[in-house]
Structures are given as C-alpha cells and as structure tokens.
Amino acid sequence: MAPRLIASIRGLHHLAALNCENPRYIALSMQWIALLPRAFASVFPRLVGAFVLGLALFLGAAVGQAQEGWFETTELNPGLPPPPETLDRGTPMAALESFIYLTDNGHYSSAAHILDLSDLPQGDQAAIGAERAFQLSVLMERKVVVPWGKLADRPDGWLSGSAENNDTGRVRRSLLIDRLELGGHEVPLRLNRIKPGKDAEPVWVFSRQSTDNIPHLHAQYGPTDLETMLPDWLRIRAFWGMYLWEVLFLPLLLVGALTAGWFAFGIMRRLGEVAKRRWMRFVLRSFRWPAAIALCAAIIGTATSRVLVVSGFIDAVLSPILLIAYVTAGTLAIVFTFDEIFDRISPNNAYELADPMNAHMRSIATTIAAARKGVIVIAVLVASGVILVSSNADNTIGLSLLASAGAVTIVLGFAAREVLGNILASIQIALNRSARIGDQLIFEGHFCTVERIHFTYVQLLNWNGTRLIVPVSYFVSDAFENWSIEDHAMIRPIILTLSQNADVAALRRVFFDLLARENPDDVKPMDKAKVHVLEQDAFGIKVRFELPTDNAATFWDIECRVREELLAAAAKMEREDNIRMLPPAPADMGKP
C-alpha cells in the first residue's frame, strides 16, 4: 500500500502543473483522496507499535538501571571454606575494616573471603587466595591511602551529601579505593557489591580485576631486596604509620638529593663559563636550574620507589611534590631557553637605542620584552594546568596538598597584589609602548634612558650614569615627558638676560654661525632656529635663542656649548666695542 501511496503523490505533483479543469487530473485526484485513508490505516499501526516498543525498552532499561544495586553471579569463591561467622562484608566500610583486622592478625585464609577469586581455578582458590590476601595487605600498608570519608557504612553504599557531589546521594555497587600505576598506566583498586545467587545476600569484596592485579602490584611496590636485608629493629613502626627506617632514611635522602642538585648546578655553571662554542654556552646557561631540580626529584623518586619503597602516606605526600618539581623543571627549561634566545636577538645597548635613527630598534626591543613576558605567563599557566590534570584526583592527600597550595597561592596573591599589579603594568607598557626600551624621557626631573622593562620595575639609566629603579605601577601612574616618541625633533630654548643697550642683532649672527659649525644631523631643521626678545624690565632684556635639535642623545651637550659660546661672544663685544652687553654685576650696581 505504501508504494501506491507514493506513486499517487508523485502523480498528483505532476498534474498540479496542468489545467485544473482537466478531467484526468480531477479523476486522479479523487483516486488519490480515496486511497489516502487506506494507506494511513495500514502504516499508522506499525508506527504506533514501534513507538510503544521503544518506549517500553527505554523505561525497562531505566528501571533496570535504577534497580541495579549489585553485580550478580552464581557463586562466590566456591573453593574456599565457609567464611567465619564473625566476618562482616555487608557494607564497604565493614568489609575493608574486616580485611585490615584479619590481615593484621595473620588470618589470611579468612581475609581471602573479601577477594573475588572468580578467575582462579576452584582447587587453587584456597592457597592462592591466602597468598593474595597477604600481598594485598602489604600494598594496603605501603602504597594505598584508604579514603575512609568516601566509604559508606550502609549496604547500598549510599553517602549523604550535596547534590553537586557525584560521590554522594546515590546507590553504588562499585567503590574506588585507590589507583596504582602499573606498566605505564593506572589500575584501580575497587570494592564491588556481589550477589552470589538469587537467595544470597549481597556482599562487598575486592573486585575480580583488582584481585588479578595484586601479584603484579606487589612485585612493583612490595619490599625490595635491600629492605628485606634490613635488621628487624629498623622495620618496626615508628609514628604516623611509617617504619623506623623511613624516619632515618628520608632526611638523609633529602640531603643527598639537594647536594647532588647543587653539584649539578655548579658543574653546569662552570662548564658554561669555559665552553668555547656559543651554542654550548647557551644550552648550559639555559638548563642549569632545570637540570638541578630534575636531578633532585629523580633521585628522590627513584630511591623511594625502587631502592626502598616508602609507605602509602609518604608516597601520597611525595607524589604531588615530585610532579610539581618535574613540571617546574620543564617550565624553567622552556622559559630560560626563550630568554636566552630573546637576549640574542634583542638589541640591549641603551645608548645605541637612544639614537633617533634607531626608532625601529626601540620598537623591536620593546616587542621582544613583551614577548618574553608573554612566554613566561603562558608557561606558568600551562604548567599549572598540567599539574592539575596530571594529579590523581582520587588521592585524597595529594589533592589536599594541591588544594592547600592553591589556598596558599590565593593568600600570597592577596598579600602580593602590588607585585601582581606591577606585572600587569609592565605588560601594559610593552603593549601600548608609552615608553620603549631606549626612549629618552624626563621622569620627576631626571633625564633618563629606558634601559630595562622588568616584570615589577622599570630600570632607567640616568644622564650621570646612575640607575633609577622605579616600580612599574608607579611609573605608569605618574606623568613623564617622552622625548623619543614618534617625532623626536624638538626646540631647546636658551634664554639669556642682556643689558638694555645690548646688540641683539650681533648675537643673532653669532648664534647662527655657531649652529652652522655643529653636526647637521644633530641640529635641524634650521628653519626652526629663531632669536626673540621675550621681555624687558629694570634689570635688562631677556632674549630667547631657539636651538632646533633632532637627536635627544646629543642636544644637552650642544645646548651647553652654544650657551657658553654666546656668553663669551657677548663679553668679547663688550670689551672690543665698548658696548655693555651683559647686565652689570651686583658689585657694580652703585657705580656711575
């Protein structure tokens, strides 16, 4: 029926283009209208049936998922003898407490009932189960940090808490205890809720996959050969769950690792000083600190995981610290490498950059300084992201350490908000280029050249050779006069007080002759050179000699030299022409 319906629709669409008065068109339309109810009558039940079937499957799956509170199996550990009556496996917390209690007292055969031994042959479950219970007890003591706060004391594993927390407010049939690295990847250690048969009560046991991984984990994290050779008095418990050998070994290990890192830094610094090849000096300078930090972390990590395997509490503390150390070493290597590259390609001579012809070099130096800051900021952000992503979120102690570090960072950030403000201000200067490296400016009465723009301060080279260190936030908040920005040409005024009868025209000719003898590149444009009488009073007249200069680096010397020559010329005219050019001295004021 459906093909006929489709054919009729296609015919109707074809005839729609014809005259609506056509008898064939009308007949076919009536035929299609008569066929439409029969077609829908045959297709509609199938659609309804498919919809009802899909809805039933969806609801059934949802109900089944909501009712799944355990994993079902026909039997659990049939090769073991009946469990002790005192064994409590009804809740996650009770199962784990029972396992720890039994293994601490040497009852490994009874503790095997808290393992899912389904992958073992029935005849081997008793012997191998006791052995794996012993191996797991060693792992629990040495490597595993039990998240007691996430273990419910209810059969369904329900934990009370906020709706935003995924670990609370729901029935659970599998609980993650810890994750341990094995063969380059992490394997979970889980408790599963198993229902062995229709009439049996569900019990909590270590999962089948976790039980299968116990021998491999024990081989990696169990006692090393060196530890087994230690005397018994060193293998007793001291405090905080640590062995006595750990209390004595860890401080010595820390001192040895720091000493090795210090020697590595000194050796690389010495090699960098005597290296003849430029690229070798570059590499050694860039990797001094990263190599020292990485070597220190590698010694501690290897010694605590291969030489003498430390307990779980110490490992939970060391793991995030070593992770931060490795990431810090890599970040410093990248930052120092780029820093050396920027130093090579960036012009850094302040006197050369101050030359007006080197305006493009000043822009390049400032851009490189901004890029250097950008690399540092990006590297720090990426390193922080790597630490957060790589950290084991299920490791409570490690996560607490990272959270504590974050809280300390917030506190330090609030305390160091001035420093952070300076960092942002330095980036602002680099971007808007209000003061470029090499620019000459007047800052609070000091004639300075911008020598460095650091994260927290601006280093200004004063005209007398001293350095003026100004916090960046203070530098950008105070007004300064930039003599190198865009149009570096300026007019330097030389104002002289002359006698009432002074020959200004003669001094004007002297002034232009002096400018003609100067370097044309430093004194220009000459059409800006002017001489004006500003005012007159009882003491004399004030004459302004306008000195055009195109070089902010040389104008000071030229201005002083021209002023001296003008005064000398005025004194000479006064002696030779017997015309007073300069005002009378105070001692001559009363003389006729």
From TrEMBL:
Keywords: Membrane, Transmembrane, Transmembrane helix
Highest taxon of source: Bacteria
Transmembrane segments: 43-63, 243-268, 289-314, 320-338, 370-391, 397-416
One family name in Pfam for this protein: MS_channel_2nd
Residues annotated as domain Mechanosensitive ion channel MscS: 419-484
UniProt-listed InterPro entries: LSM_dom_sf, MscS_channel_2nd
Record-given protein name: MscS Mechanosensitive ion channel
